[in-house]
Amino acid sequence: MAQLPAPPGPFRRGFWRSPIRGPWLTSVFGLVLLLGIPVLFVTGALSYAAYNPSLGRLNDQTPDKGLLGFYLFDWPTHPYWLYRLTQGVHVTLGVALVPVLLAKLWSVIPKLFEWPPLRSAAQALERLSLLLLVGGAVFEFITGILNIQLHYVFPGSFYTLHFYGAWVFIAAFTVHVCLRLGRMTKALRSRGLLAELRTDLAHTRPEPPDPDGLVPADPARPSITRRGAVGLVGAGSLLLLGVTAGQSIGGRLRGTALLAPHNRNPRSGPNGFQINKTAAAVGITAAHVGPDWRLEVHGRGPVQVLTRAQLLAMHQHTAALPIACVEGWSTEDQHWSGLRLTDLAAMAGLPDAGSVLVESVQPPGPYSSVVLRGNQIHDPRALLALRVNGADLSLDHGYPARIIVPANPGVNNTKWVHRLTFRT
Length: 424
Prior knowledge:
Layout: H1 23-50, H2 82-96, H3 98-112, H4 121-148, H5 158-190, H6 193-197, H7 226-242, H8 246-249, H9 286-289, E1 295-298, E2 304-306, H10 308-313, E3 317-321, E4 334-340, H11 341-347, E5 355-360, E6 369-373, H12 374-377, E7 383-388, E8 391-392, E9 402-404, E10 417-423
Parallel strand pairs: 1-10
Antiparallel strand pairs: 1-2, 3-4, 4-7, 5-6, 5-10, 7-8, 7-9
């Protein structure tokens, strides 16, 4: 059967004419992604582990994970800045890699328009893996960036979609690397990096024809060198790094985090630091936290019911801890004071408690309740905080009482706490 002619436009090889497109430039961008994407995946997997999903459905936004949760472990409380580091790296690196990803997609875009689309079963499988690779990468980056900008618009839970999307993408990525690593290595060796970076526009030539069809059949005159393309992408990544990293690093760099919603004016929030969700946003009213508020402490023996005044009359402990959130932003160390969770466990008759169910007065919804592990209860810096930075908690920061635990994701440091149920 005669092959149908390619339709006009991008399906015809003559449509793609950039003389710098070819295996070498594609491999340069691919090498950067080969180094960066595994770090992204590992730090993302660590973020999932930090939520302690094996403690139960309250903590687990992906209850059908099955074998995908094989690596889960008890999330530690030491060092106290651990989650701030891992999630800061995850978000900052993800943003910085966006120009590299776009450049890599540009470099291989002729492959997406091959004609005929399906020539054989083997070629169909290759195109399917390419679709999963490209689609997975675009989906993960878009959902992640929308989430950190607080403009998540996809249907369903971000955690669930991003988690499963990550596994689909990393599987396709692994297959792609196995299939292409040899060709990438050969392409990188075909041209010296320093020599290519010294080549000016007048001496820029197309690469030799390649079996993948990346080199144009009818190249146009160059309008940019490969040096220029690499420099442009590198400058874009450095720019994004510069306007994102400060939200996690802090200090003087915090003011440069122009792309971080919570760090444009970090000291403007109540108690002198930023918040993620206000009390009004989650439905907290004065009736929830007024004079009738009580803390219930459950365990072995009679239930303890305590007013805030009674809690303040007990021996207070302090801890300097940051808040770090999944969006990549974090505060500086804030100075908290309140009751140690281990003391409250002893009050409940379970000094060796293995977990505690923390419940908020906020209406039921994601993370209105959470379960903490035994190691989190017994860390001396883990508090039911009543005050911060020398003042009572503001309503938006969790008044009358909130949880603060070292290395804990911000959303698990439950605010507006009204019940603690310690368990063996």
